[in-house]
Amino acid sequence: MNAQLHSVTLDSPLVQEARGTPQLRTDDRTPARLATCRCLLRERRMIGDSIGFHLCAVPVWDILLDLYLAEQEGRPMYLWQSCVAANIPISSAHRKIGEMVSEGLLERTTVLGDKRCIGIRLTESCIQRLDALMDQLAAAP
Questions:
Q1: Mean pLDDT of the region 38-59
Q2: CATH number (domain holding residue 79)
């Protein structure tokens, strides 16, 4: 596996969030994108609650949606949070995240001072793809 690991610098979004000054990504389409993403997340949770997460598991999509929302809100995300978002064990989350890193969708980050804490974030190309998808979904009848 060709894992990419990035160190977090003092001006990175993760450090800015820890300092209480998140760097938000906004433009005129951001509110519609956020509403669409939140709707998709609610839908996934309702389906999982009604039918069972084990029967309708789509962990990559769940992780991408959760990371996209975090990115839009300027929140850092960590590997363990992906387990919660996708309703999967940590070993499965590691595997899925590794696949998404290999596909160029995610980057792993380390937090200064704590090499045990692994952050994850969407790549810029993945953000652009999800922005386009959220725009299409928001415009759909």
A1: 93
A2: 1.10.10.10
The answer to the question of residue 73 being in a domain is yes
pLDDT of the residue at 21? 41
The confidence band for 8, taking pLDDT boundaries of 50, 70 and 90, is: very low
Instruction: Output the average pLDDT for the chain.
Output: 83
The DSSP string of the chain is: ----EEEPPTTSHHHHHHTT-------TTHHHHHHHHHHHHHHHHHHHHHH-TTTS--HHHHHHHHHHHHHHHT---BHHHHHHHHT--HHHHHHHHHHHHHTTSEEEEEETTEEEEEEEEE-HHHHHHHHHHHHHHHH--
| Structural domain of 50 | 29-139
Instruction: Estimate the crossing angle of helix 124-139 against helix 30-51, to 10 degrees.
Output: 80
Burial class (CB in 10 A: 0-12, 13-18, 19+), 95: middle
Classify residue 70: in a domain, yes or no.
yes
Q: Is residue 124 part of a domain?
A: yes
